Amino acid sequence: QVQLVESGGGLVQPGGSLRLSCAASGSIFSSYAMGWYRQAPGNQRELVADITSGGYTNYVDSVKGRFIIFRDNAKNTLYLRMNSLKPEDTAVYYCNSHPPRDAYWGQGTQVTVSS
């Protein structure tokens, strides 16, 4: 079984940076394409970025050039480096496989971008 635990969120001013981490339990992490998702108040959850098991990455247009998704398979950890943060990035951020599995959703980590 796989469990995912997100961390690294917080309150940051516009233009600031954060690095989110997703720690995975289980022995199959390296075989999965993974993604970061976010859900803002009143909005549906959206895919922000994904990375294949081989390291190929994709980003939603709104974060291209600002966010970087990467993984450390030896540590069973997925990361999202977020730079030049904007208020519209405010959301709860989740990791999951890509495509996501319903059973893998964790608590998420809150990112708030505000002055």
Describe the protein in words.
The protein has strands at residues 3-7, 10-12, 18-25, 34-39, 46-51, 57-59, 67-72, 77-82, 91-97, 109-113. It has 115 residues and is an all-beta fold. A hairpin with a 6-residue loop joins strand 4 (34-39) and strand 5 (46-51). It is globular and about 40 Å long.
N to C succession of SSEs: EEEEEEEEEE
How much β-strand is present in the residues?
Answer: over 45%
Task: Tell how many strands the DSSP assignment holds.
Answer: 10
How would you name the oligomeric state of the polypeptide chains in this document?
single chain
**Mean pLDDT across every amino acid position:** 95
Q: Share of helix among residues?
A: under 10%
Shape: globular
Strand order of the largest sheet: 2-10-9-4-5-6
> What's the Cα radius of gyration?
13 Å
The helix-and-strand class reads: mainly beta
Q: Quote the distance from N terminus to C terminus.
A: 41 Å
Low-confidence stretches: none
Report the sheet with the most strands, covering strand number, pairing sense and barrel closure.
6 strands, mixed
| Contiguous helical run count | 0
For the structure shown, list the relevant keywords.
four-stranded antiparallel sheet, 0% helix, 10 strands, mainly beta, single chain, 115 residues
